[in-house]
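New here. Invent one.

***
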Amino acid sequence: MNTQLQLPFRGWSRAEESSKHGSGGGKTPRIGLVLSSGGARGLAHAGVIQVLEEEGIPIAAIAGCSMGSYVGALWAAGLNGRQLEERAREIKDRATLRSLMDYIIPPSEGLIRGDKLRRHLERDLGDKTFSDLDRPFIVIATDLDRLSPHVFDSGVVSHAVHASSAIPAICAPVKLNGRRYTDGGASEPLPVTLLKKRFQLDAVIAVNVMPPPGEDEARSEQALMVDDKSTFHVLSRVFHTFWHKVNLLAYGNVLDTFRRALMAAQLHLIAKEEAAADVVIHPRFAASTWHDFEHFEQYLKAGRGAATAALPAIRELLQNTPTNLNLETISHEIAPSHTRMEYLAA
């Protein structure tokens, strides 16, 4: 399926969707939810979802990219926000994360295959297809052969999520139906426009967990290591110095440089897509890196805080017509804790 406007999924008629999620012509507007890429930061999506559930905010359709597709797939399959938090808490340390890595030797296509991570997802999804999901859901990956975003809306959901989450140069490309796919964040890290094209929606809430331009990830990574007292041991310092030289992902090394160059393009794409959303929820983190899944509590808290701050704007979506809405960007930052709001013309 390409990125052009398509009819809703087979088995989901407009009448069926309206009866489940409301209709643009009725009292309840049809609201879509977009979950961005962002690695471990994507755990904040679970915090946002918890608040939406607690407040009874109806979501008619979901789009997910990379980590957003992982969280979105579980939610679309019927897991609730608390169950999403339980899944996040499973990755309690780096050793647990490493146990899910299937390394490629030699690393010609990437550092890992990603099959273990897909099977981890399949504990909940099994072989469910998109038509088996409880909520309409699309996954965005990047087609390496066509050099364009690709929308998955049919087939096995876990395979689509695997393709969408295959971080370039880290994960090997995923081959499906004779084509090669990589991380959807490379082409559509916040797929607001694609969700709008695919479904009849009155408004879209976008959750962007990517760092803002200028955030110093190197300083963030050092901040995350402060609590690790072993780093102050002389032998540990020697080890970390050596490891920095051989670790291709370390700050300033080749894969880190590649990733940061890719992020520069992503942030420009995100800025355009945020302008197409009606409410943008942007959780902020005092210290974060894309791989620190063990700091799940920080991300969940940030997601909940940002979503809570956005509730007045979200409730406005439920009360007003789209033409009367403003684009509202909500940022919630942990340490120091404060909320910042910016209003832009719709």
